Amino acid sequence: MDKCYSIAIDGPAGAGKSTIAKRLAKELGFVYVDTGAIYRTVAYFLDLLGVSPKDVDGVERYIDELTIGIEYDADGVQHMIMNGMDVSGEIRTQDISQKASLVSAHAVVREVLLDMQRDVAKKHNVIMDGRDIATVVLPDADVKIFLTADPEVRAKRRYEELIAKGQKAVLPTILKEIQQRDYQDTHRPIAPLKMAKDSVKVDTSALDIDGVVTAIRGIVKEKIDL
Ligand code: DC
Q1: By C-alpha distance, which of 36, 28, 30, 37 is closest to 4?
Q2: Distance, CA 5 to ligand 1 centroid (Å)?
Q3: Which residue's alpha carbon is nearest to atom 3 within ligand 1?
Q4: Is the pTM of this model over 0.70?
Q5: To test the ligand 1 pocket, which listed residue (94, 101, 177, 193) has its Cβ within 8 A of the most ligand atoms?
Q6: pLDDT at 167
Q7: What is the largest CA-CA distance in the chain?
Q8: Which of 115, 148, 167, 182 is least enclosed, having the fewest CB within 10 Å?
Q9: Does the CB atom of residue 104 touch ligand 1 within 6 A?
C-alpha cells in the first residue's frame, strides 16, 4: 500500500467515538484502533501488581515488564493482549476507566504508547479514536473530528451501556466519574484532551448514532477520495 489514510476521532468519554468509529471502519474497510483500550491495558496491568496509578516511581519501574499486543478477530474487533493474555473484557470496568485516566498522565506511559499507535497507522488505513490523536499521535491525519456531547447525555449513554451488559450502575455516580475524568484528561500537562485547530467539531448531544455516522461520513468524503 502506498499511502495509508488516517481518520482521527478525539473527544471525551461517552461522546460515541468507539461506536461511530467501528461502524465507519467497517464501511470503509479501515482498521479501527481504540487507543483508550491501550491505556486501559496499562492501568489493568499496574492494578494487578498493586501499583497505584498515581505512583510515578512504581509506574516507571514496572512499565517495561508489560508487553502489549493489539489483535483483530475475523469481525475486525480489537483485542488487547497483556503479556500474552487477552484482557479485552477485564479492562471495561468503571474502576479501570478512572485508573486509565490517571495512568495516561505519566510521560513514560505516553512515550511507550505513542510509537505503538503510530506504527499501526503507518501500515494500515486507520480510524483511530482517543484524546490526542489529531493533536499529537497523527497530526497529519487526513480527517480530524472532535466528537463531543453534554456530560449528562454522555453519562446516560454510559449508564445504559453498563446496564445492557448486566453490570451495576448508578447514574449520578457515573456523571460524577465522567466529570472527574473530563477534568483529569483536559488538565494533564502532557497531551491533554483538546480540539486540534483543524478538527471538525461534531456535537452528538441531540443526534442518534445514524445521524452522527451520516455527518461524519460526509466530512470524510470531502477529504478522502475513496
Ligand atoms: O477512551 P477510553 O474511555 O477508553 O480511555 C480511557 C482513558 O485513557 C481516558 O480517560 C484517558 C486515556 N486516554 C488518553 O489519555 N489518550 C488517548 N488517546 C486515549 C485514552
Answers
A1: 30
A2: 22
A3: 13
A4: yes
A5: 101
A6: 83
A7: 49
A8: 115
A9: yes
pLDDT of residue 94: 87
Condensed to tens digits (0 to 9), the pLDDT of residues 104-136 reads 999 999 999 999 999 999 999 999 999 999 999
Backbone angles phi, psi at 2, to 5 degrees: -75, -75
Answer yes or no: are the C-beta atoms of 186 and 194 closer than 8 Å.
Answer: yes
- The label of the residue with cell 489493568 reads 44
Instruction: Decide yes or no: CATH 3.10.129.10 for domain 6-223.
Output: no
* Cell numbers found for residue 9: 476521532
Structure-block grid coordinates of residue 27 = 464501511
